[in-house]
Amino acid sequence: MAGGVPTWEEVARDHGRFLYNVAYRLAGNDSDAQDLVQEALLRVRKGLERYQPGSLEGWLARIVTNVFLDEVRRRRRRPADALPDDPDWVLPPSPPADEVQTGLSDDVQAAINSLPNEFRTAVVLCDIADRPYEEIAEALGVPVGTVRSRIHRGRRLLRRALVNTGESA
Amino acid sequence: MSSRVSRSALVVTAMAALTALGPVADAGLRAGADQSDPAEELLANARHAAERSAFSGVLEVTWSDAAGPHSREVPVHSANGVLSLGDEGQVVVDGPRRFVHETEGWLAVWGGTVVPDVPSPSEKWRFTLRDGPVVAGRSTREVDAAGRDDGRVRERLYFDTTTGLLLRREQLDRRGNTVRAVSFVSIGEAAGALFGVLPADAPRAPLASATRQPRSIQTLAAPYRAPSTAGDGFRLAGRYRDSAGTVQLFYSDGLFAVSVFEQQGELDWSELPAGGDSRTVAGADARRYRTPTGVVTVWESDEVVYTAVGDAPTDQVDGLLADFMPSDSPSTFERVTSFVLGPFDW
Amino acid sequence: MNERPAPDDRLSAYLDGELDLAERQAVESYLAESAEWRVELEEVAWARDALRSLPVREAPPGFWDAALAPQLTEARARRARRVPRIAGLGAAAAAVAAVVTAALVVPSPDRVTPKVPAVADAHAVRASVSDDPVSRLATLSVVTPPRR
Fold it and tell me: Residues 22..81 of C with a Cβ closer than 8 Å to A: which?
């Protein structure tokens, strides 16, 4: 790994958990998250030659977000396509890693799912991928002020969604 | 009776010719308007190939559910234009007629002389044709069916190069994994068939049977729902009602099919069989089962109990179900596990 | 005169350490003086914490093997497509009488329950009429009985 540029396998091995986590929080389900990660890894593979050593996780977060937004655009054109396979068709059934806290984290994820995409991406990049505002601005192609506004409004919407659940439960 | 005898003689003679002469050109067997696509021709010919050949074989049916993969072996015989399936020949096919044997006797579960139609698959599916692998010791031609919109292969079919019989079909999920399959694992010519003598255990259509075929109906009023198209390219290809009043809508996209059964009343969830998953489909509570035939989904809406059975891939079935689901949902936000109204539609 | 603005997105930036010195001091003074600002801070901080407390979601088992070895996966797929030899299974379970009974649903005065094997069979029968009959009828519950 001389010169700071990792190999594709190193990226997958050392940052796979990060990649999958961000993908899952964006996509909201395992099936789509897997598709996102597969596509992101392909882009990582192709992009490694041009990669400037710096914030690797920032770069990865940006790739996953772009894949997610590309998929959103694609599905808007063909809504009938937007359906994941049931996960237990092929993979053996297995409980998710956070089974113990299933109730709460599922609720939070569902609240994330309910956010419009512009707020969801901002909030996930900030609070899940832990990127600074400037990186998020670059990733989303908007000014930092817009990032700040989207994060704030996204968090407020999230809070409202979760409070409503509690009341109606 | 006499017409049946002469038909038998004709079929036996034709069979002898087929099996004796070797490969038969695909094109000659069937005249059809839109048979210009050789792959579609193979599919169309296969529907009658089983009754034109004489054979004995064993099928393997494989599918999976939450408990894992399953498989069953099903013996098949064909002679004299009649097919039978099962260890004791419990299922019989004679032309368009289908019979099932149960404890009390034979049931005619389909009897129409008019064969219902389905849409052409070519609008939604693109077929590619090539030489296939050996299946049950026979050489095959392989047809892959890919969606025109995403190019993903969702079904592979393998046809016997000699008889055109469909020897194997397998269904793939969106990642290309096989999720269900029906395949011959062994097949051979029925003893004696070449010489015009039927083997003792040759299948025969029952002479007497109780009618259990649903009636074809033309119109359907509220509270039933019967959209003429649903999901991704599925067209309503049949409406039926059985003796108990249950409505069956048969949708097809030319390759796969989904039936939606509708019955007025309130669903008794507690009486549903064990082994199903509780799911949310487009915001509605549903129970889902995996069966060898396909995925079965049960839900209720507006005083009608719906049961959908699809041999199509799950994502295709879900797309169709969305057109039957209630449009508004009760809770402030809910966990949508099937994403018709999910995060990707904003 | 009240120059204090309504609570705004500087609060999120404040929590994330994204404000410069001047902005930070302004926000802190608003927080000291205004209950409204404090309430909104608390709400936004709550959401931020809820997100940051989410556990790391792991990929399902087998995912990384498949993702990192596309060549292996393709070879496996090719092998799977070749047909299995005659299965050496023992005799199929003793033939069970068919469960294709009269009604597809069991009606009672006001409640109905669909019979899952029966509806699946009804679909298979109809599908077999416009498709290959052998592969469609092979899945009937009378020859592939449902597990009890």
Answer: 43-44, 46-48, 50-52, 54-64, 67-68
